[in-house]
Amino acid sequence: MTRTDRQRWLLPSHLVEPGGSGAPRPRRTVRDWIVDTSLFLLAAFVGLIAADTSAQYTSEAVTLVDQLLGAAGCCALWLRRRWPVGLAVALALLNVVAPVAAGALLASLFSVAVRRPFREVAAIGALAVAASTAQAFIRPDPTTNTGLSIALGFTLILLVTAWGMLVRSRRQLVEALRERARRAEAEAELRAAQAQRLAREAIAREMHDVLAHRLTLLSVHAGALEFRPDAPPEQVARAAGVIRDSAHEALQDLREIIGVLRAPGEGGEAGDRPQPTLATLDALIEESREAGADVHLDTTVGDPAAVPAATGRTVYRIAQEGLTNARKHAPGTTVTVTVRGRPGEGLTVDIHNPAPAGPVPHVPGSGQGLIGLTERAALAGGRMDHGPAPDGGFALHAWLPWPP
């Protein structure tokens, strides 16, 4: 049994088939057939009891007419899904002269209460009460007091109507919960897609930060080999080694990021290399020094491992971008990296380089990394400022939270 079949078995047809409440239905479900047959048999049983009581005090002709009218009313219940209001009105009028149709009237009132709004239910219920009261005078029961007959009829109509309205409210609640679940599922999928998009944007910024540093090292040493072909073999070998190592690291970083960007099921394994933190800042400084840069690190953080990983990674990327910019725009200058902070006060990162001695060619795409780092710092709960320094150089200042 499929999911759709189970829904059609468990739910009423007006909640499964198109058209809504009161609309024509192309077919009855198994559940509809069971409910309709049960109501038909119940109405026929009540009609038989009423017919047996009526036969004791009326002629055979009247009894025969009552039985025919009662049978017609019970058979008409098969139309209650298509015309619930019209059938209830007709059975209420029939019940005035044929007490045998009382069972069919109660079944039709139940259908109206389940499928129609309260205003129509109240009007049909009032008509049924009026018809039951009129019957008590037109076709009185000799064994029952007239007032008791009127009260009994009113009570039965009220109970059946209330039961139908309760069923209607429950069905509406179930449908509302199902709609809410569908809407929540759709919103969850939308939030997941948005989170994935934001994650990919963060990975793209990470790619820029990482590859810009590696490729700058490649460019510097390749340029040195190009303009110094007469350099000593030791320097050539050292530059070639830096180029090889930087290219290898760039490929590793690129493979790791592309692995993360792969959609689920596309295959491939994500990189398992550890992410940089503040504890790896010394390695970054040393790498820049080996590439020929003059870098001075001044830090008061005694235990870099105690800094939260996300904050330390942001500090690392800021320092990496600052060193990359200094290498591109102020080659040969001394770069000072200062890291201060403690728990509860936050971390401050200052990177400064003086103005270069000669003209420096413009590098395409300059400034994009600083924009990305500003966004990264803001996402981490901090801030970053950058711009020309008073001595003509360039300064970068960032503050990041460090919880106590």
What's the layout of helices and strands?
Layout: H1 3-10, H2 13-16, H3 30-55, H4 60-76, H5 84-97, H6 102-115, H7 118-138, H8 146-227, H9 233-261, H10 281-290, E1 294-299, H11 309-329, E2 334-342, E3 346-353, H12 368-379, E4 383-388, E5 394-400
Structure description:
With 404 residues, the chain is an alpha+beta fold. Among the domains are: 3-143, no CATH class; 278-404, Histidine kinase-like ATPase, C-terminal domain (Heat Shock Protein 90), CATH 3.30.565. Helix content is 64%, strand content 9%. The protein has helices at residues 3-10, 13-16, 30-55, 60-76, 84-97, 102-115, 118-138, 146-227, 233-261, 281-290, 309-329, 368-379, and strands spanning 294-299, 334-342, 346-353, 383-388, 394-400. The chain has a 5-stranded mixed β-sheet, covered by helices on one side. Strand 4 (383-388) and strand 5 form a beta hairpin. Helix 7 (118-138) packs antiparallel against helix 8. One of its GO terms (molecular function) is protein dimerization activity.
How many distinct helices? 12
Instruction: Give the percentage of residues in beta strands.
Output: 5-15%
Rg, rounded, reads 43 Å
What summary fits the major beta sheet? 5 strands, mixed
Keywords: ATP-binding, Coiled coil, Kinase, Membrane, Nucleotide-binding, Phosphoprotein, Transferase, Transmembrane, Transmembrane helix, Two-component regulatory system
Transmembrane segments: 33-51, 87-114, 121-138, 150-167
EC number: 2.7.13.3
Enzyme class: transferase
